[in-house]
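Help!! Second protein's tokens look totally different from the first
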Amino acid sequence: MSRHVQNVNLRVAERDFKYYIFDWDDNILHMPTHIHLEKRMPDGTWQPHNVSTAVFAVVRTDTENYRAPGGVWENAFAEFQDYEEERESRFLRDTRASLEKVLGGETQPGPSFNTLRETLVEGRLFAIVTARGHKSESIRQAVRLFIDLVLTPAEKEEMLANLRGYRACFDGLTAFGTDGEEIEYYLSLNRYHAVTNPGFKQWLTQASGGRPSTENAKQFAICDFVEHVIKILSRTGADSLRRPISVGFSDDDLGNVAAAERYIQEELSQRFPSIKFCVYDTSDPGLTDGRKVVVSGQLDFGF
């Protein structure tokens, strides 16, 4: 049990409702996970050629020179799945390796690294939406590892004070669990979508009646998070839904960014006209925080 005095920040009740959707690879962290391809050699033969997620985003449409091993894409993304025999997921292992390099000063984090850090400290709702195929629990464990390794003791205490504040102001709690229990409850409120996971694909296929692309799958995940946020706010009372709500989405893949912008403009902004949507294109490493596009809404909360 946690024995120290539990600080409760009741000022969170005065905050705007600002939420985030993050892609993971090359947006939060530059992961060591490889995509296994074959590359055409000058003599016309094909040789094994492993690439990072950043390189794959560039070459994936070059079908003349790059292909999946034997034409089977499941083989190309073997490192992007969970396997029952693993003690811990590849995603968690690669996240730990990436965080250790960032914290050791060996590599730079992704452009949305600090935004995720601030989101966690402030205790705001968020979603991780990635093209990977891992289970939601694997991604959630990686976020918990991020909290454990990245946040300083002072930041963790601030986060817990904020989490208790939200519980007091919106759930009516006067007593709280241990620090670990409050963090786990907070993590349970968020969304972790790996859109090539078999379970997610089955859910999406049933909902859409077809075989959507990765871009469409991310659109579906974005919509799910927005609906999830509205449902949570509805439980706190009608006043919450009358306050300004903002949702930001960040991704380093230009195809996903364009699809998200289009989807928000054509559909989400029509369904949720009171929500301000911001899309961040983080594909340019020269832009520290990425390129910001306000898709709908008039208020600016400094995304």
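Here's the second one for comparison:
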Amino acid sequence: MDESISLDDDYQRIADKWRLRLLDKIPFLESQIGFAAVPLDGREVTVRNGDSNWGMFIADQMRMAFRSPRSDLAFVNSGTLRIDDFIAEDITFEDIGRTFGFSSYLRHMTMDGMDFRKLLEAGYRGLGPSKGYFPQISGFRVCVDRSRPDGERIVQMQVPMDNGQWQEIEADKAYSIVAPDYIYRGGDGYDFSKARDVSRPGSELKFLVLDAVIRAQAAGEKVGEPLSPVNTRFVLLGEKQNVCFKNGVRARIPRG
């Protein structure tokens, strides 16, 4: 459905009535809290299937949820992000409210690289598009082959090095991780049984993102960036490819 579908007058009268009641209770709902540098894509078809600049921004904030030092890795199940729309130009309180339809507290923990890689396989299982368990990620990038069996689809999982290049996640190295309490407790099929040093639930995600947008506004900065091969985090393995990333950069996809 889009703007080409005309509104039903009777329905619109009902919607307008309840919106007026909502604005009466939350008069600041339409107030600007920030500005988008580019349209931020929160559509379900985007966040549940691949990279989303709105999803990236949200996942990036999670790494500072428990203050300094920021966690190495973070991810959020895309079903947490409910707005199913673009956010363009002004960012309002309503945009944050529409993005997070329910509370989403976070947990901080430690996992070895091999265990984290196995855990994240749950995000790429099954057939068909638009899965709410698909992860929006921060601090790493993945190459996925959907032709492989469930549990064996991650071809590469890379983390950044200090020199700006990338390397495969180290199997026995301990990484600090932030993830939603909902999936830590088994939601969306994720298994965190190998996690250790797990914090209590804290730092509600919608307020974390709200604070980040307001801080950017106070600093005169805009939120978000366009997607490009330079900042890609999720790549599907193409035909005639063995890997997606080569020599620290994204591999060229053969044509034909």
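Reply: Different proteins will give different token patterns, so don't panic. Residues 251-256 have pLDDT under 50 and may be disordered.
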